[in-house]
Amino acid sequence: MLEAINLSKTYNGHTAVDELNLSISGGEIYCLLGANGAGKTTTINLFLNLTQPSAGLARIDGLSVAQYSLETKKKLTYIPENLSLYPNLSGIENLQFFSGLSGVQLTDDQAGELLVEAGLQGDAVGKRVSGYSKGMRQKVGIALAIARNSSVLLLDEPTSGLDPSASNDFAGLLGDMKSRGAAILMTTHDLFRAKETGTRIGIMSNGRLVEELNAADVSHSDLERVYLHHMRA
Amino acid sequence: MTHHIFSFEWRHLKSSGLFRITLLLLPLLIGYSLYLGNERVKQQEDTIISLRAAEASFYEEKRQELVAIEQGEKEVKRWFQDPANPLVLSRFQGAGKHVFLKPKPLAALSGGQLDILPNYGRVTLTTTEPLRDNALENPFMQMVGIFDFAFVLVWLIPLFVIVLGYNMLSAERELGTWALLRSQPVSINRILAYKMLFRLLILCGLVILSLLLWSLLFGISLLHADGLALIGVILLYIGFWFALCALFNLFMTSSAVNAVGLAGFWVLFLLLIPSLISMLATSLHPVPSRALWITEQRSIEQAVDQENDALFDEWITDHPEEFVNENAPDFYEVWFRLLLVNEAVENRLAEAEQKFKEPGERQTELVSRLRPLSPPMWVQSWLERRAGTDAQRLRTLDHEMKAFQQEWYDFFVPRFRRLEFLTSDEYDLIPDPGL
Fold first, then answer.
1. What is the ipTM, given to two decimal places?
2. Which of A60, B18, B93, B287 is disulfide-compatible with A72, CB 3.0–4.6 A?
3. Could you give the angle at the alpha carbon of B284 between the alpha carbons of B280 and B290, nearest 5°?
């Protein structure tokens, strides 16, 4: 479970995140929409403890991120917009390395199976990552989440730059992770994908969460209207 | 965790072309330098053996000849062929002994100043002559210097360290893996420290292992205090360059900036600082011109030569018992005077030499005081000292030759002055400098 309680972050007088209150339960995909600079990535960074909150609390499964940084990181998998892996290692080796850092040791077969489960082609798993597309690298990230049995997924614009087919595949993988009980926070600019994938949708503007919707309760056009309304406000 | 990070760092290194080149080239360079060093030491040892054998053979032949003369089997035809004559045994063709600076156990690792300063010389009654195996050496080779382990360690190994360390952390940022690493449940500092430590261990291991294996192959013993200290110095030196790489990486600069900056430090420590120290030493303590010294030598020789009669008269007056007046052979007075002149010249030269030597000694002192400014200079100097090829030790050859010449003089000259010729039994008393 992910929680933000009056979470704020101020950089040099500029408020990037302003009293954010958020709660994402297991089995839920929360899509955070907003223009560039709205505070989406800062929110992710606060949950990763890559930056310290100016006020408030970020919690993962009840543990304060700032206080229990390494413990909370054990529970999550982070997939940045452009997941970079070691290009001279294969998909299997990359997965083994990063899962090993959280104490999950995988054999070649286990790692290969996880990568296939995450949607990679069987013949690609042993190849060097330097030949992987962005979508393939994102799948390694998902395989890492499966391997670590992460209860939390933090995704920072993971579908940006993916072609529609790859984006659709990725959405399917998120659905799988959701059904495994993971709490997923995904920032995105893609209203369509947010509506299709998300359970709940939040809209951020100038660091504040200005709107929160149930994805099932809004149509694509309503979502677009609400979003543009907040962006122009 | 350590094993996990080490094993993946090994996979990274294995797939790196630069590392594969290092893995191949570094042991070969170390091996080649040790091979050349070992050959150089063997040559020195062979020279010692052959010259000692030639000396022994010369004196044994003379002894046999003298035994034959003593038994009436042979006659002395000319005075300068008489094997009982102290002059024949101490000054003439083939007479004299060699003084050696024996190679130390680590001599194969550093040629040091051997290309400039000799390590053995011949002593006779009137000369101390430093000798070189390569007297007619190609001047180009002298300019290039000796390719030895010290060169590989001091000059080349830092380049390998830079190649393996310049982008230890910057590559993570440039690849973009930094972000993923920071989200892992292990401290990023710990991950990066292990990655750096592994590279350090690999490089140190490669150098030490190569050194040990090649040494074993060439029969160079490192199982002594100096050998163990050498391993410590190698670790410290590689550690120094590695720390420099780590510092560059910690300042969050790009790999390109790191590479250029580290190459700049290599130039600074290996070329600029030594050149500046040398310039400082020569300008603060300039050594008088060699031509001046030669002119001084000649004027001393001429002055003493003009005092020949006075010197002789003074000696006869002071030591009448040391001069044979009656029935002396023709050569006696000529050589008596010559030895007196030679002794006077040597004494006055020693006084005059001091003013030419002093600036050089001050230069050496200043350089050794400033040496810690450049760790490569310090390591080079340390290795030369332990190998016994440093200028300070090689310059002791002159003192050792002079000391032995005094012993030689004290044995032969009083006998000559009293015209006491040696018997074959007294050959065993002829001084020997030993090893």
1. 0.86
2. A60
3. 100
Token pair of B396 as six digits: 């002791």
Residue of chain B minimizing CA distance to A130: B175
CB contact under 8 A, A73 and B183: yes
User: How far is C-alpha B8 from the geometric centre of its chain's CA atoms?
Assistant: 45
Domain spans of chain B, in order of start: 1-435
The owner of tokens 């040629």 is B111
List CB contacts (< 8 A) between B176 and chain A. 80, 82, 84
User: What confidence tens digit (pLDDT) does each residue in B86-125 have?
Assistant: 999 999 888 999 999 999 999 999 988 888 888 899 999 9
Residues in contact with B284: Cβ distance below 8 Å, sequence separation at least 6, in sequence order:
B362, B363, B366
Tell me, what DSSP letter sits at residue A131? Answer: G
- Rounded to the nearest 10 degrees, what angle do helices B375-387 and B273-284 cross at? 70
Given CB atoms, is B2 within the 8 Å cutoff of chain A?
Answer: no
Give long-range contacts, CB 8 A cutoff, 24+ apart: B56-62: B58/B94, B58/B95, B59/B89, B59/B427, B59/B430, B62/B88, B62/B89, B62/B427
Helix, strand, coil distribution of chain A in percent, nearest 5: 40, 30, 30
**What is the Cβ-side half-sphere exposure of residue B229, based on CA atoms within 13 angstroms?**
11
Closest-CA distance of chain B to residue A67, Å = 13
Q: Is B149:B234 a contact under the CB 8 Å cutoff?
A: no
> Which of B10, B184, B188, B195 is best to mutate for the A interface (most A CBs within 10 A)?
B184
Judge whether B390 and B117 are in contact, CB under 8 Å. Answer: no
| Side chain identity at residue A4, one-letter code | A
Which one of A84, A103, A154 has the shortest CB-CB distance to B176? A84
Q: For B159-171, what is each residue's pLDDT tens digit?
A: 999 998 898 888 8
Q: In this model, does residue B136 exceed pLDDT 70?
A: no
Give pLDDT tens digits for B295-309.
988 999 999 989 988
Q: Nearest by CB to B180, from A84, A87, A105: name it.
A: A84
Q: How many CB atoms lie within 10 A of CB B288?
A: 13
